[in-house]
Design brief:
It is built from two helices and no strands. The chain has one domain (1-59). Helix content is 93%, strand content 0%. It has 60 residues and is an all-alpha fold. The chain starts with a helix and ends with a helix. The relative contact order is 0.14. It holds the Pfam family Hc1. Keywords: Coiled coil. Might have a role analogous to that of eukaryotic histone proteins. This is Histone H1-like protein Hc1. GO terms for molecular function: DNA binding; structural constituent of chromatin.
Length: 60
């Protein structure tokens, strides 16, 4: 659950930069959003693997 909460916090932290990029055309904010989305992708993959591992252990 810890990693899931990290993902939620990451999305919340990116909200201000996303607003700056989409509404104010701030390209530096766009770069930060892209980096944050890559971090989110990696975190999501780690969560997927953790869930799968936990599920497999429970069925044995």
């Amino acid at each position: 659950m810890k990693k899931f909460n990290e993902a939620k916090e990451l999305v919340a932290a990116l909200e201000a930069d996303a607003d700056k990029f989409y509404n104010k055309a701030n390209s530096a904010a766009g770069t930060r959003v892209r980096k944050g989305m890559q971090d989110l992708k990696n975190l999501a993959q780690a969560i997927r693997l953790e869930v799968q591992d936990t599920k497999n252990k429970a069925t044995k």
